[in-house]
# Entry
Amino acid sequence: MKELFQNDYVSLLARAFIGGLFVVISIDKIADPASFAHSIANYRLLPHWSLPVVATLLPWLELLCGLSLLAGLFVRGSSFLLAGMLFIFTGAVVTALLRGLDITCGCFTQDPSAEKIGWTKVAQNVSLVLLTLFVFLAKNARFTVTSYLQHRTRERSS
# Structure
C-alpha cells in the first residue's frame, strides 16, 4: 500500500482527475451564479443572505484548487480544501435525503431537469473524498511545477 502513495504516476493520474473534474464543474457555476445560488437554496441549509456570496465564491475556489492540482502547485493545500468541500457537500446531500428533499445536486449543471440526488451521489462523493485525501497524502514529488522549480534551482546552484 505504501508503494501506491509513493508512485508518481498514480499521484499524477489522481491529481489530473480531481483537478480536471473541479475545473469542469466550476465553469457552469461561474457562468450562472444566480442559478447556482438557487441550487444551494434548495438544500435549505444556509441563510438567504449568504447564498449570493457562497454561489459567487465557491465556484472560483473550486476552479483555483482544480487548476492548482493540474499544475502541481500547492497540491497539499488544494487537495485539503477540496476534500473539505467534498465532505461538506456530502453532508449536505445526506441531510437533504434524510429530510426527503427531492432536489438536483447542482454539482455539474444548474439545469433543474438534471438527475435528482440519491444515495448513489453520496457514494460518488465519498469516493471523491477518498481520492482527494489520497492526493493530499501522496508523495507528489514529480510532475509538478514545484518540483520543476526546485530542480531548476538546484541546477543553477551547481
